[in-house]
Amino acid sequence: MLLKACINGARRPDAHPMLPLTPVTMAWAATAVVRAGAGAVHLHVRRADRSESLDGDDVARTLAVVRAAIPSTPVGMSTGAWILNNAAQRHAVVSKWSVLPDFVSVNFNEEGSPALAELLIGRGVGIEAGLFDASAAERAVRSGIAGRCLRILLEPRGRDVADALKTVAGIESVLDKAAVKAPRLLHGSGATAWPLIDEAARRGYDTRAGLEDILELPDGRVAADNAAVVAEAARRIAAVAR
Question: Rounded to two decimals, what is the model's pTM?
């Protein structure tokens, strides 16, 4: 199973002292999480002012620096609608990227997601379909994208683990009915992050870990950095596998 590191997300700069928000600090974090057991890195590109960006120059600069640090590890990024909250503008900006990530996450609860995914598939970029609920799964299936994805992201938004797993069951019912065979990655955030990493390990699904999803270790201590979170996730996955 794949353990992917999610190193920054949409968090505010003051969320954690080791949150990487520049190309150089993202590269440092990427190097550390790969050493800790991550097989892929997911990041949110930032502008010079630390706000999120889909701008081609910001994307190219970030990918160049991170890839130089981890040349053998796939690097992906977010295309979340909140970064550029206009579907037509987002599509136009992404279409002009001169440097492409290995994969991107496309959230299928967001306007313009099927067309954006088609654009990126056409350019050779792997798609991770972000599915928050069954309706997003239905949209991904109807679009014809679900069966062509690199991975399906099972991303329940509930804070309660039982509710999150109920949501996952609804998503998977849609995927199974459509015979979608793409690998599934299960993860949570906050209170559900560690329980869903454990659940992913039990199911043999891919999962992810990092400061985007969780700032604390299972014992409640604030994690020192992304590598500490990934190392703990790797340890837990290995324990289930034994």
Answer: 0.97
